Amino acid sequence: MKNIKKWLPNILTISRIIVTPLIIYLGIENKIIPLIILAAFIALTDFLDGKLARFFHVESEIGAKLDAIADKALAIGLLIILVVHNHLFFYILLLEAFISMFTLHVYFKTHIVESLLIGKIKTWVIFITIILGLINILIPNLKTFVNICVTITVFLQFMSLFNYIKVNNNRKKQKKKVN
After folding, report:
1. How many Cα atoms occupy the beta-carbon half-sphere of 77 within 13 Å?
2. What is each CA distance from 69 to 2, 94, 155, in whole angstroms?
3. pTM score
4. 133 Cα distance to chain centroid
5. 66: nearest Cα among 9, 112, 21
6. pLDDT tens digits for 26-52?
7. 125 and 71 in contact (C-beta within 8 Å)?
8. Contact present, 22 and 39 (Cβ < 8 Å)
9. What is the distance between the alpha carbons of residues 2 and 46, in angstroms, rounded to a whole number?
10. Would you say 28 and 77 are in contact if contact means Cβ atoms under 8 Å apart?
């Protein structure tokens, strides 16, 4: 039982990575209802994996890295699908790719996986906006509401990016003071 507790959060995280190609396939094939159901279910694993890791006291660096990769893979896969239906999702996709490249660059320079509260909030808002965007494919009357959600998401992405830059710059200043 202890081994299951130890690995369950990472299994949930890896499931997001494994299912992402299926989600993209469903989007390409325009199978929107199964896509929405699967995307909503998989997005919940993002909430559960972290909660379970903390509950079972099995947080790990590999788990944090896998979680970040899974979040980005799933979000970017879904955003690629949505850009075809609503061009405003391109801005979320572009910013998410930029944030991913920036955090990856920082990781390779510092070997630190940084997770900020604003980044977690941004990720959840992205997933909510994505699900609403998918629903909007079926119910076009939601377009104005979805566009407002996209705008809020872009704002949170900028806030997240600026906070990551600020934390990185503060780390550099602290390192210079030590040396």
Report:
1. 23
2. 25, 16, 22
3. 0.83
4. 15
5. 9
6. 999 999 999 999 988 888 888 888 888
7. no
8. no
9. 21
10. no
Contact criterion met (CB below 8 Å) for 46 and 71: yes
Tokens standing for 77? 């896969």
pLDDT tens-digit map of 93-106:
999 999 989 988 88
Contact between 21 and 98 under an 8 Å Cβ cutoff? The reply is: no
Query: At CB < 8 A and 24+ separation, what contacts does 79-82 make?
Result: 79/130, 80/24, 80/27, 81/23, 81/24, 81/27, 81/28, 81/35, 81/134, 82/130, 82/133, 82/134
DSSP readout, 93-108? HHHHHHHHHHHHHHHH
- Are the C-beta atoms of residues 60 and 5 closer than 8 Å to each other? no
CA-closest candidate to residue 85, choices 44, 132, 151: 132
Query: What's residue 1's pLDDT?
Result: 58
pLDDT > 90: percent of the chain:
50
CA distances from 34 to 22, 23, 52, 123 (A): 10, 9, 26, 22
Q: What H or E segment, with its residue span, contains residue 24?
A: helix 2-28
For the chain, list the domains and their CATH numbers: 2-173 (1.20.120.1760)
**CA-based max dimension of the chain:** 59
